[in-house]
Specification:
The protein has about 425 residues and is α/β, with parallel strands linked by helices. The protein has helices spanning about 5-10, 20-25, 45-60, 90-105, 125, 130-135, 145-150, 150-160, 165-170, 170-185, 200-210, 250-260, 260-270, 275-290, 295-310, 310-325, 330-335, 340-345, 355-360, 365-370, 375-385; strands at about 15, 30-35, 60-65, 120, 190-195, 220, 235, 240, 350-355, 390, 395, 415-420, 420-429.
């Protein structure tokens, strides 16, 4: 496969230095992309860059994932309106370990292939480099005028930041430039890739290489991913959509992709999956014939959830979705883990009731006096007679019966359903 052609049809190519495509056509190229280890999980804002590395490797080239162990201690001003919190070494090391595990789901680090991926950490080559050596060896090659002209610097200086731009952040582009120079020298790395907001930092690297040793070097970026309405991609009311299930459950992750708009689904399935062009074209055509089926969103959600988590996590997310929107059973409920159950029923009314009351009270008393799900016993009796009340997805036939502690999901929860769409969660305490 041709890497640049692959990025073009997927809508993943923003800027490219002249000569890049020719280089990629004539030899196996080593390229790197930097990832800032500010958290112990990546989020979906990182996914476009990671998919670039994945396609790069699939096209026969060698990807380097650079974790910014050193630069992460400083903070990149690109695309930021405030200086970020600086992290200590122990936190950074923890974050790096977690990120490597996540990256291994996308890239081949372990095979014997000549183009197997490598993880590099710029702290390894920066930790012994003194400030005096750095400004003598590197600082002399790049003028302040050149650095000042960068968009990321200008935006911060021209009023976007309340506190201006610290020298620490100003120096970031020099450090990132040195990363490219170091990898160019030690690993014959000729290409740096990143998001479009990184173009200034990346070209500082190519300029540094040109001025120090004149070696061949190139730059390529992907566009900033937004929603069709111009909104920020990857943000929800609760914040980032993380790749770690500790922060975003596979159910919520799946739901994010399932709920994107039709226009976004057509773009995202090209950017965030490895499906080929013919398959994607067919999926888009099928979706346009009957958008109500949301077949494109379903396939997108499946592909990304399986890639980031696992087939099993995807199937559990589908089952969990059916609890609210499909014909789930008591058995389905019993299989769902506690974290997913709470994610599914986030925002529904919840009532804490003692385990003794759940064991000893009849359902009528439980749902009226102990948990105010129904305003009166008469109203509840009437709805039970009409088949409109369920506990744990099973119709209640006799309101005078006891639910019993054995009915508790995960030994803790009872799901009460009133009519088709009204859910309540009773939590045993």
């Amino acid at each position: 496969m041709n890497f640049v052609d692959e990025l073009r049809w997927r809508g993943m190519l923003q800027d490219m230095m002249p000569g890049t495509e020719e280089l990629l056509g004539k030899e196996t190229v080593t390229a790197y992309l930097g990832i800032d280890p500010t958290a112990d999980s990546l989020h979906i804002g990182h996914l476009c860059g990671i998919m670039m590395l994945r396609h790069f490797q699939r096209c026969g080239h060698k990807p380097l994932a650079l974790i910014g162990g050193a630069t992460g201690m400083i903070g990149d001003p690109s695309g930021k309106s405030a200086e970020r919190n600086l992290l200590d070494e122990a936190t950074l090391n923890h974050n790096i370990e977690c990120i490597k595990k996540q990256l291994s789901k996308f890239l081949d680090f372990d095979s014997d292939a000549a183009n197997k991926a490598e993880l590099v950490n710029n702290y390894d080559w920066m930790k012994g480099y003194s400030f005096l050596e750095f400004v003598r060896d590197i600082g002399k090659h790049i003028t302040v005028n050149y650095m000042m002209a960068k968009d990321s610097v200008q935006k911060r200086l021209n009023g976007e930041a309340r506190d201006g731009l610290s020298f620490t952040e100003f120096s970031y582009q020099l450090l990132q430039g040195y990363d490219f120079l170091y990898l160019n020298k030690t690993k014959n790395c000729k290409l740096q890739m990143g998001g479009s907001e990184q173009w200034g930092n990346i070209t500082t690297g190519t300029e540094l290489i040109r001025r120090t040793n004149g070696n061949e070097c190139y730059a390529l970026t992907c566009p900033l991913i937004t929603k069709a309405d111009g909104g920020k991609f990857g943000k929800t009311e609760s914040g980032n959509v993380w790749l770690s299930k500790d922060y975003t459950t596979p159910y919520k992750f799946y739901q994010f992709w399932l709920n994107v708009s039709d226009a976004d689904a057509e773009r995202y399935i090209k950017i965030f999956t490895s499906l080929d062009k013919a398959t994607i074209d067919n999926l888009i055509e099928e979706h346009r014939k009957d958008p109500g089926m949301r077949s494109l969103q379903k396939r997108l959600a499946e592909e990304v959830t399986v890639m980031v988590h696992s087939r099993e996590d995807y199937e559990q997310a589908v089952e969990a979705s059916n609890i609210l929107f499909g014909k789930a059973t008591k058995e389905t409920l019993q299989k769902v883990d506690e974290q997913t159950l709470l994610a599914v029923f986030e925002g529904v009314p919840q009532f804490e009731v003692s385990k003794d009351d759940i064991e000893n009270c009849d359902i009528l008393t439980l749902c009226t006096e102990k948990a105010a799900i129904f305003p009166s016993k008469g109203e509840m009796r009437k709805l039970v007679q009409g088949g409109g009340v369920s506990i744990n997805k099973e119709k209640v036939a006799d309101a005078s019966a006891k639910a019993g502690a054995e009915a508790l999901i995960a030994g803790k929860y009872l799901l009460v359903q009133k009519g088709k769409k009204n859910y309540y969660l009773i939590i045993a305490k």
